[in-house]
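Q: Given only this backbone (421 positions), what sequence would you predict?
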């Protein structure tokens, strides 16, 4: 049996959503000792549905969680656009909405986080209700001071703490230097399923705005997603939920359909989410012994529909490189970035294009879109149009080549070399 005379390298990961626990899973398999710190007092299980396609599906398979992911599929059947009176304008099947192919899936973000946490909780140290307050690096490691006051040493630190990453701010500088607002805001919250939706999404388009209500498999309530365009950033505190609810109410004041009722639910929602649709763009994702992962490094925004996939794939690539360059984190970080960056940029460009389509600024553009929605199921080119949408999304979902580093069962064994894209 292989035995490693050196102690397991210790890695502190900040953030327990997707990227954090996925990285912890791989690092544990490779004989590292990961600790994951999460600011929330317990696992955040809420959220929205996230698409998993292409490479991310393969990474789930290699993590051994694909069956569980499939068992928790949202199982969406499709969606419709409705007018002000709630009358259906047109219906589209789930494949067109999601640009999916056979084998792709969709799951609630919180469900995926729970699956990854359940899979790692026995082997990985999780610290909830705490966060990194300060980092001091020297030639042997990093001294981490936690918000709780605890001080500990680690070999490496990974910031997987999302769009508003504290790790990024502490190590690289203020958030404004790395985020780019794409001209829209998104809000999401849970409310009763007034429309009686069953694995179905209903869209209502307004000038500069989009409302989507959906209910997925196993849900008794509905998720409500409200998007509005705002070319300029609206200054606000991203942790001040009351202020965000006011911004949402102002943006949708006077609008019809279900909007007044939804705004009422938004005001009381305990899972209210509101954020700018933004990209994170950085010249580099690592500095010394600290590296960023997932949205913290390269948020592609909800408009890409690929952030979860990028987080999973990034965790797989980073862990593989760290295992391969066990005593040389600088090379591991450089290789990770080199392999991920082109695919990340492809997905970010797709997000920039898609965000322009999320909301339409005039009534005539909306009327044209609704005409197309109504006609699409009847047109003989339906297949071609669906294929074009699918091809773009699928190419982005496969943009990052992954190697064949099936996890070794004994610790410390380097993964097999890359076998190609
Ligand atoms: C409305 C919406 C729809 C989306 N739809 C899709 C989709 O269809 N497909 C898709 O692939 N992606 C989608 N995404 C994007 C996806 O959710 C993210 O890209 C993905 O969750 C990124 O994972 P992450 O682990 O990097 O970061 P996050 O999921 O943002 O998690 C960061 C974690 O870090 C924690 N944290 C924050 N600060 C600290 C701190 N200081 N200390 C410790 N912990 C901290 C947070 O509590 C959180 O648990 C969507 C996003 C939104 C908002």
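A: Predicted residues:
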């Amino acid at each position: 049996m292989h035995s490693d005379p050196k102690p397991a390298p210790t890695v502190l990961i900040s953030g327990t959503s997707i990227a954090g626990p996925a990285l912890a899973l791989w690092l544990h398999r490779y004989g590292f000792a990961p600790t994951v710190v999460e600011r929330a007092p317990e696992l955040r299980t809420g959220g929205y549905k996230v698409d998993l396609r292409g490479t991310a599906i393969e990474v789930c398979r290699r993590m051994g969680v694909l069956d569980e992911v499939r068992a928790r599929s949202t199982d969406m059947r499709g969606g419709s656009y409705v007018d002000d009176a709630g009358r259906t304008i047109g219906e589209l099947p789930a494949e067109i909405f999601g640009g999916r192919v056979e084998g792709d899936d969709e799951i609630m973000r919180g469900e995926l986080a729970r699956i990854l946490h359940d899979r790692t909780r026995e082997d990985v140290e999780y610290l909830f209700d705490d966060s990194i307050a300060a980092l001091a690096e020297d030639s042997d490691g990093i001294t981490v001071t936690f918000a709780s006051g605890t001080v500990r040493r680690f070999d490496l630190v990974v910031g997987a703490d999302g769009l508003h990453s504290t790790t990024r701010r502490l190590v690289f500088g203020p958030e404004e230097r790395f985020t780019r607002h794409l001209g829209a805001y998104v809000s999401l919250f849970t409310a009763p399923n007034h429309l009686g939706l069953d694995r179905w999404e209903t869209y209502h388009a307004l000038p500069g705005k989009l409302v989507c209500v959906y209910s997925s498999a196993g849900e008794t309530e509905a998720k409500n997603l409200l998007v509005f365009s705002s070319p300029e950033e609206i200054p606000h505190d991203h942790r001040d939920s009351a202020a965000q609810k006011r911004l949402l109410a102002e943006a949708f004041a006077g609008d019809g359909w279900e909007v007044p009722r939804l705004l009422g639910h938004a005001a009381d929602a305990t899972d209210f989410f509101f954020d700018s649709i933004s990209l994170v763009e950085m010249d580099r994702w690592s500095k010394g012994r600290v590296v960023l992962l997932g949205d913290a490094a390269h948020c592609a925004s909800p408009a890409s529909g690929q952030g979860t996939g990028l987080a999973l794939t990034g965790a797989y690539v980073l862990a593989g490189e760290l295992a391969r360059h066990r005593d040389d984190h600088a090379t591991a970080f450089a290789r990770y970035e080199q392999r991920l960056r082109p695919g990340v940029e492809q997905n970010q460009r797709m997000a920039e294009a898609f965000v322009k389509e999320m909301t339409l600024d005039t009534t005539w553009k909306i009327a044209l879109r609704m005409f197309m929605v109504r006609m699409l199921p009847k047109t003989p080119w339906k297949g071609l149009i669906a294929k074009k949408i699918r091809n773009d999304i699928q190419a982005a979902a496969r943009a990052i080549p992954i190697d064949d580093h099936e996890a070794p069962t004994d610790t410390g064994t380097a993964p097999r070399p890359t076998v190609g894209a």
